[in-house]
Amino acid sequence: RCLSVSVLCLLPQSALARWACVRACPPSCSCTQEKSCSVLCDRAGLAELPREFPCEASAINLEKNRLKFLSERAFGTLPSLKSLSLDHNNISFITPGAFKGLSNLLELKMAHNEYISYLHTRTFTGLKKLLRLDLSDCNLFSIPDRIFIEQTAMTELLCFQNNFRRIPGAIRGMENLTHIYLERNKIEAVAYNSLQGLGSLRYLNLQENRINVIHDNAFQDLVRLENFYLNDNLLSNMPRLAFRGLSRLKMLNLGGNQLINVSKTWFGDMAELEVLYLDRNQLLNIEEGAFENLTSLITLHLNSNNLTTLPLSVFQPIYFLGHLYLFKNPWECDCGLDWLKQWMESYKLVRDIPCASPSSVAGLDLSQVVFPTANGTCVDPAELNLTTASSEVQPTTENRFNSLISKLLQQELREEMGNGTESARNATLPEPEEGQLSAGVGGRGTQAVQSLLCFTVTWLFCGLFHLSHAS
Ligand SMILES: *[C@@H]1O[C@H](CO)[C@@H](O)[C@H](O)[C@H]1NC(C)=O
Ligand SMILES: *[C@@H]1O[C@H](CO)[C@@H](O)[C@H](O)[C@H]1NC(C)=O
Ligand SMILES: *[C@@H]1O[C@H](CO)[C@@H](O)[C@H](O)[C@H]1NC(C)=O
Ligand SMILES: *[C@@H]1O[C@H](CO)[C@@H](O)[C@H](O)[C@H]1NC(C)=O
Ligand SMILES: *[C@@H]1O[C@H](CO)[C@@H](O)[C@H](O)[C@H]1NC(C)=O
Ligand SMILES: *[C@@H]1O[C@H](CO)[C@@H](O)[C@H](O)[C@H]1NC(C)=O
Ligand SMILES: *[C@@H]1O[C@H](CO)[C@@H](O)[C@H](O)[C@H]1NC(C)=O
Ligand SMILES: *[C@@H]1O[C@H](CO)[C@@H](O)[C@H](O)[C@H]1NC(C)=O
Ligand SMILES: *[C@@H]1O[C@H](CO)[C@@H](O)[C@H](O)[C@H]1NC(C)=O
């Protein structure tokens, strides 16, 4: 194909490049003017490939034509070609060796060819420098295990929206892969060796498959993984060491599965995790300490589950959680959630916690529920006689005192967080005991609480003294 200009290609490139491009620009395509020209043949109604391409071409765009078939060496020899797009055609067969002669190709796009259901082992022969391959939205059921034997440099593989029933064995050991897109296939399991040897992987998308089995240590080689989508699968349980080794993970999406329990061990290695999605499952139970090593967590999505209660111990020790999503759960708003209500009021990081029970508060938001205290302890709404409740729920001095503390604490925290300093650290106070309020802010605020308590007590006394004198 390129023969007619191959002699010219041997001459000094700068002198001839532009001329070569213009001369060999295929009919019904246009070619840009620069030295390494782009050949634009998209939406040209082509049913067959042009007979030749300019051998200086660095990019060829053949998107949205009616190409059906690629013969061996379909593009001839194009040593400068870096990028080739065949998206949105009607390709059903690719002859082995079709891309031979494109030895410097970096990117090959063949997405949206709905009749590609089969690829020969030697389909990509000769593409030794390929970095990015897009086979999305084709009709692939599997690919041969050795199909990428020459593509060891590949960094990005896009295969979303196909019919894979398992993770292609071909990716095993591809140590330079950084991004894998396998969403919207029919994958059913992640075996212990499915993702072996992918030590550079930073992004893995397995969402919207049918995964219901994950083996222990299935991800242990993914030591650089940062973003991991496992949402909208069929997971109802996972083994205790399913996520072992994912120590660089920043985002994990487990939403839209059928999980019932959250195991204490799943997130134990994820000290850098910032965002965790567990929404749209059927969670009834979160094991104590499940989040204990999530020291970087900023956002936690627990909405749309079957949670009725959330013991404070689940969150202990809690770090600086920024957002906690809890809506669409059948919350039982009894004294067990008193701490959460206080937390809501103090930090505004949580909102929208609709109560499903007890009946006396059903339909209210937790923020509207008043927990009366009797003799200093919280009394569950269910146990109160509603008609007399209103008279018993007179705000006591103690209640006002508590709310004052949380207001002051909130202000203090804002200042602390805003400046990122630990200004309250050097107070000459004894180590405070772990109390309810301090637990809510992960220990950092404990000393602040203590000093505020002292301060507030003094302030109240002064106020009372002042009042009694005034009257
Ligand atoms: C695409 O290819 C398939 C099978 O090869 C054929 O049935 C179909 O008519 C083709 N569609 C177009 C638009 O050419
Ligand atoms: C990965 O890429 C580096 C250069 O980026 C290269 O030296 C190495 O050989 C590649 N690995 C493989 C298996 O090709
Ligand atoms: C979930 O946890 C509960 C209580 O800890 C236990 O009885 C149940 O067997 C667990 N279910 C699963 C599916 O692990
Ligand atoms: C938290 O990390 C520590 C230290 O790495 C480890 O010993 C512990 O088992 C982890 N906790 C969980 C729940 O995995
Ligand atoms: C969760 O609640 C839904 C209805 O809200 C129910 O259909 C489902 O069975 C519950 N799941 C569990 C594990 O209780
Ligand atoms: C409060 O304590 C007193 C005496 O200790 C007791 O008689 C009373 O019943 C208690 N009230 C409630 C609501 O528990
Ligand atoms: C609740 O109060 C009403 C009216 O004051 C009274 O008739 C009823 O017996 C009380 N119920 C209980 C359980 O104390
Ligand atoms: C904290 O930041 C506020 C403004 O954000 C500033 O006015 C104040 O001086 C800072 N305090 C310290 C100790 O840096
Ligand atoms: C706080 O204490 C540390 C050692 O305990 C000391 O080095 C530091 O200067 C103190 N900071 C302030 C602001 O007093």
Oligomer: single chain
For the sheet with most strands, the description reads: 15 strands, mixed
For this structure, what is the CATH homologous superfamily of the domain at 1-154?
A: Ribonuclease Inhibitor
Strand order of the largest sheet: 1-2-3-5-7-8-9-10-12-14-15-17-19-20-22
- How many beta strands in the DSSP annotation? 25
Mean pLDDT: 81
Strand content: 5-15%
Q: What ranges have pLDDT less than 50 throughout 5 or more consecutive residues?
A: 1-11, 385-471
Shape: elongated
Distance between the termini: 105 Å
Using the coordinates above, name the CATH class of the domain at 1-154. Answer: Alpha Beta
What is the SS-derived class? alpha/beta
Give the radius of gyration.
32 Å
CATH architecture group name of the domain at 1-154: Alpha-Beta Horseshoe
The CATH topology of the domain at 1-154 comes to Leucine-rich repeat, LRR (right-handed beta-alpha superhelix)
Structure in words:
It is built from 7 helices and 25 strands. By secondary structure, the protein is an alpha/beta fold. Among the domains are: 1-154, Leucine-rich repeat, LRR (right-handed beta-alpha superhelix) (Alpha-Beta Horseshoe); 397-470, no CATH class. Strand 24 (373-374) and strand 25 (377-378) form a beta hairpin. Mean pLDDT is 81; it is low at 1-11 and 385-471. Bound molecules: 2-acetamido-2-deoxy-beta-D-glucopyranose (9 copies). The site of one 2-acetamido-2-deoxy-beta-D-glucopyranose has 4 residues, from loops. One 2-acetamido-2-deoxy-beta-D-glucopyranose binds next to loops.
